[in-house]
Amino acid sequence: MAVYTPIKGQEEDNGDRNKSLKSNDEGGHVDDDEAVDENKSFILPTHSRQQDDVQRQKQQRLVSLDVFRGLTVALMILVDDAGGVLPAINHSPWNGLTLADVVMPFFLFIVGVSLGLTYKKLSCKAVATRKAILRTLKLLIIGLFLQGGFLHGLNDLTYGVDMTQIRWMGILQRIAIGYLVGAMCEIWLKGGNHVTSGLSMLRKYQFQWAAVLMFVTIYLSLLYGLHVPDWEYQIPVAASASTPKIFPVKCGVRGHTGPACNAGGMIDRTILGIQHLYRKPIYARTKPCSINSPGYGPLPPDAPSWCQAPFDPEGLLSSVMAIVTCLVGLHYGHIIVHFKEHKDRTLHWMVPSTCFLVLGLVLDLLGMHVNKALYTFSYMCVTAGAAGIVFTGIYLLVDVCGFRWPMLVLEWMGMHALLIFTLATSNILPVVLQGFYWKQPGNNILRFIGIGR
User: Fold this and answer.
1) CA-CA distances (angstroms) from residue 262 to 110, 285, 395, 396?
2) Which region ranges are annotated with the description Disordered (predicted)?
3) What is the C-alpha separation between 398 and 404, in angstroms, rounded?
4) Apex CA 349: angle with CA 344 and CA 354, to 5°?
5) pLDDT (tens digit, 9 = 90+) per residue, 157-182?
């Protein structure tokens, strides 16, 4: 959920090609003829220094990026609330792509774009590194609190975490990982050469692209190269936790990308521990595991043994490829920094977006399926391409054509994304409403208005 918050001492680094806008922290006055013509909303009138500071703080934000972030938050709320009713927009049970499946990569893409603007020039890399680490820890702590199980959910007024079963990974944890790696790449892995073209920009950030290649290689090598042995898990029988039933899962394969025997699940079970994984796996909605597929439902009589096994959709191996999405977004942020003409930005955004989208679809046809749970390379390509196209469209609509007023709600949501995410994913608001009841906990406000029956 990172936003564009310039680091002290940063300013444009494009020489004569681009005009510069001084950072808010510098306190310098910018005259009319010195203002950046980023878009219409970036032109600064001549006021007092204090007025200029406030005005620059508002206008340094890229409006289209806030709108895109707000749109992604709105999509998240939509699919969370309506996904159970409309399976077409809910997460795909395994292979495939739905509206819900683009939310996570869109967030990661936005984080990357924001990092390209935040760290475009630094006065002290050590200070920037410290701030990036602190922001990462903030996201990790909030993520553990929200998704580790502290608030037990709707219709349950209890709280607290059993540390033997806490879920270590989650949405904010994955965003934190992508943020940290992207920030380190932007702080430490960029050259100092002048950018005059797309090719020179690639040379400036060649080490970042080398990091992308390294992450993709590591992911593909582990996913398709690791041998997955047979394994087992246990779940309590009825209400007795002392007599768990053991379910054996037969594997003994290499390079398998099905729900039961993929390397991603094996890595998470080995490193994190199966008791610390998500207990409501997405593949429980597949046809072999649910008579109501693509919705959750009772197990079919011949259901395979793995249907109830915990599986984390934000696991360790899939997070490696998620980092790549963040670094792709970082490249789009570089385009904003180094190219000031709208047509140049649009061209440099649309070409890679189209290439990513086509490459991902071709890989899916060749057998490397688009899969959100595993965050496959084809899934990364399709969703990164889609994110680039949507971002370009919003940029043209909002920052070029000035179609801003109808987007004010999305812009506000984008500027307060972390707060909205916290309220939406933690059930904090329903828990507060349930906390006020008449005589019995069930007689609360939610029950009165017909929610949570």
Assistant:
1) 29, 18, 39, 41
2) 1-37
3) 5
4) 130
5) 566 777 888 889 999 999 999 999 99
